[in-house]
Design goal:
Helix 10 crosses helix 11. This protein is an alpha/beta fold and 518 residues long. 42% of the residues lie in helices and 11% in strands.
Length: 518
């Protein structure tokens, strides 16, 4: 092998490593990860399994930067229902739906800045957030409260406020899921979602927030594994040249959005890609289509994955399937963002854009809460029975994060009892209703033993078994309190109906304050 071929191989290998954003297990960096950081790996993705505390996270990121000072440390921290920093306790910040319900862009900017400040303090400099999806389908199983709402202009102004707040704290944003996941009826973790919207609808609805985010200077955009036949009848967004290069990257003069920053893929191990193309093939197609960074590690988190994808990209260049210039361009964009993040972090540390505001999350949760029946509501004079109706866990949100308001009500109303009623037990035939022969509402009433019932639900409009249980409870006990911690699409029920627009810890506390009369 000649000196030039050795040099080329080394360059290809470093570029292939640079475009990967892998995850790992454990709360300290494994030796293989540190070794590959020295070999050219430029990014690391963190998940809740990597975080015990803010102090431990700061130690971990410092460990990474001892090897690679410019490493991009990425995380999926939306706040609200999707939290990695506070997966064990629930988030201190409400999510997008709550912020959209308040519709105060200054509040959204402040929440994003405070969240970004905490990320930066822990050494995180790239956030795979916010969701810029327009939630045009209320039955969407994967977006829901992760969206600012169903109106494109509302979503756009809050996406811009979020980008401004987060990036002013020195943390790059990565708006998602381009070209828009809001009108889907299935989860791309399992299958390829298909959106049958024409191009005019796409431009007037899905693309509005992304166009605004690009104009506002978002450093990154995350692709979605979504098939839009009007845009590309064959390939979903992540592996579609028409979506990534022809629409997202193309200049506005050519009908594109003109995004010149990083394009990151959604998790490549999701079955919409891995079961359709295979992991290695999917990654090659994504980079060839215009993606710059490959997100992998939510489900696949070992060195083997890094080596497989690195070698697949190098092999694709050698076989002529992937242009060497395209891989080099992708790697350069990753390194460029790393340089920005290092400079922005140093500048923010010297002159913070806003003072810390630790109470802003609670303020936002209280402002978002909507109450029906409060004018005639009477505070319980003793403990209550909290029945939390839990839908089948959504992998995008994470099933380890606690939710609800039982803990808060036990503090405010001593003696309060809580119980969870799991959708995986009570739902049958694709969530068609309560399990055969069981009356879930009657079960709750028996367990309540005369105490007032506080029924806590998430997206009751999407789950027939929840709605049936609520009907039984409200008919038997008109004083039942209903707390909707998903999207409030159904008619309010109960003596008091509270809509929190999300299941973050602060949303539960805001609802508990109302119920307990605090």
């Amino acid at each position: 092998m000649t000196t030039s071929s050795v040099r080329r191989t080394d360059t290809l290998t470093r570029d292939a490593l640079a475009v990967l954003q892998p995850g790992f297990t454990g709360t300290a960096a494994p030796a293989w990860l540190l070794r590959h950081l020295g070999d050219g790996l430029a990014s690391v993705g963190l998940f809740s399994r990597n975080i015990d505390s803010a102090e431990q996270l700061a130690t971990l990121t410092a460990q990474l930067r001892e090897v690679s000072p410019d490493v991009l440390v990425a995380i999926d921290e939306e706040g609200g229902d999707v939290t990695r920093l506070e997966a064990r306790t629930g988030s201190s910040f409400p999510g997008n739906a709550a912020l959209g319900a308040v519709d105060d862009p200054r509040l959204t900017r402040g929440v994003a800045h405070e969240l970004g400040r905490r990320l930066a303090a822990a050494g995180v400099n790239l956030n795979w957030a916010p969701s810029a999806d327009v939630n045009s389908n209320p039955d969407n199983p994967v977006i829901g409260v992760r969206s600012f709402g169903g109106d494109p202009e509302l979503v756009a102004r809050h996406t811009v406020a979020y980008v401004d707040g987060m990036q002013s704290a020195g943390v790059a944003t990565c708006v998602k899921h381009f070209p828009g996941h809001g009108d889907t009826a299935v989860d791309s973790h399992h299958v390829v979602p298909r959106v049958e919207a024409d191009l005019d609808t796409l431009r007037a609805r899905e693309l509005v927030p992304f166009r605004a985010a690009v104009a506002a200077g978002t450093k990154g955009v995350m692709s979605g594994h979504i098939l839009l036949p009007a845009l590309d009848p064959t390939y979903p967004g992540t592996v579609s040249p028409a979506a990534l290069t022809g629409l997202l990257r193309a200049p506005e003069s050519e009908g594109g959005l003109g995004h010149d920053g990083l394009i990151v893929t959604d998790g490549m191990e999701m079955r919409a890609i891995s079961a359709t193309y295979g992991l290695e093939r999917g990654c090659v197609l994504a980079v060839a289509a215009g993606a710059d960074a490959i997100c992998v590690g939510g489900g696949l988190s070992g060195e083997d994955t890094v080596l497989r994808l690195r070698d697949a990209l190098v092999r694709a260049v050698r076989d002529g399937e992937l242009k060497e210039e395209r891989l080099a361009d992708a790697a350069a964009r990753v390194r460029s963002l790393a340089e920005w993040a290092r400079g922005a972090g140093a500048a923010n540390a010297a002159v913070p854009a806003l003072a810390p505001d630790p109470g802003i999350g609670m303020e936002a949760a209280r402002r978002a809460l909507r109450a029906t029946g409060l004018d005639t509501y009477k505070r319980p004079d003793g403990p209550v029975y909290v029945a939390a109706f839990t839908p089948v866990a959504n992998i995008a949100v994470g099933d380890e994060t606690p939710w609800g308001l039982g803990a808060e009500l036990r503090r405010m109303l001593p003696g309060t009892a809580t119980a969870a009623y799991d959708g995986s037990v009570h739902a049958v035939d694709g969530d068609g209703g309560a399990a055969a022969g069981r009356d879930l509402g009657a079960e709750v009433l028996r367990a309540a033993d005369g105490r007032r019932v506080v029924a806590v639900v998430r997206d009751a409009h999407r789950h027939a078994w929840m709605s049936a249980a609520l009907d039984t409870l409200v008919a038997a006990r008109p004083d039942t309190v209903v707390v909707e911690m998903g999207l409030p699409q159904a008619e309010p029920r109960g003596a008091l109906h509270l809509a929190t627009y999300g299941a973050a810890r602060v949303c539960g506390r805001a609802a508990a304050e109302i119920i307990a009369g605090e």
